[in-house]
Amino acid sequence: MLTGSLIISWIFAKSITNAANLGLEFGIVGGVAYAGYYLSFAIAGILIYNIRTRGGYESLHNFFTSRFGKNAMRIFSILIAIRLFNEVWSNTMVIGSYFGDLGSTPYYASIIVFTLLTLAYSLKGGLSSSIFTDVIQMGLFSILLFVILSSIYSSTNFSVSDTVTSGVWSFDMGLNLLFAALLQSFSYPFHDPVLTDRAFLSSPKVTLRSFLLASVLGGACIMLFSVIGVYAKAMGMQGQAAVEVGKAFGTAILLIINFIMITSAASTLDSTFSSFSKLAAIDLKLGESISFGRIAMGVLVVLGTIPIFLDAEILSATTISGTMVIGLTPIFFFWKLPAPKISFYLSIFCGIAFGFLLIFDLIPGSWILTTGPYADLLWVNIWGVLSCLIVYMIPAWIKLW
Prior knowledge:
Layout: H1 2-10, H2 13-26, H3 28-35, H4 39-53, H5 60-68, H6 70-97, H7 105-154, H8 160-164, H9 175-184, H10 193-196, H11 204-234, H12 241-249, H13 251-283, H14 290-305, H15 316-324, H16 328-333, H17 341-359, H18 375-400
């Protein structure tokens, strides 16, 4: 159950839309590049296993409070709150795109109805209902993905060999994003409570096995879904890959793709609501009651829906937020190092600074040593992680001396 919940909570509408579109843009290389983020499960599983068994910590908030103080814990909470905020709009925007053109009445109406329906059952069951529905949704996703891939390979001249040879393994054709995803995987999972909340539910050994298995199976699912985009590229399609392929195969396949999007978005959205509720009520102790937790869910729905009206970009919810938290890399990888509190602040704010460089396109051209799409993303993360490691280690070395 834990493995299935982990996978489906990360195979959300935003992810599979990005995977299909990257398959359309770069061929199978695009799918592999986005699947690189699923290394996050293995990294998080191994490190949190050690934090639990060797450190004795019961949650990440417990870890930050013990190691760096309450203010550090509050800053960490702000980072994960931003992550949860991004999850709402980036997934519901995908749902809207299946019901109407961007900015149309059906587009906005479908988003509002879908969000409120998901909120309704989340208010009733919280994380327990989220995990229960995750298992069902994972089963549905697997069946429907099999149906789609069977249709692509059986009813057209498109073959597995066409898929494998569809991309060019170069920086100009997707490798920048692949290496950026792998690099961000060393910090990205720790600011996602949808993932980390599940790391403290089972025994350490069961959790570790689940996370390692989810890393492999989740990455495989993303690569398989990117085949839809690869097929769209081979057929010369343009636009949203999943939508266009659905239209090409007729109403039945379009409805199946639509259903996958709805179930995957719902599985992530209910987890997002329950994680935000836990963050506000339990981790931050703002109001330890079920009623307060439900109010927190409602607040997140309102705030998380606002960007839909501001023309936000779906992929930026992953790439930019992943850059903003690269300062977590040395904090978790060297968690046993007796670093002083200042190390935390230097590393975190160094990472945020590099995130702003990416947002406002202020990266000097001399920093970028490769060409092609996402070159700026790759190199701002490389220089950013190196800088975070240095500023984290300097106070620790001084203290040791």
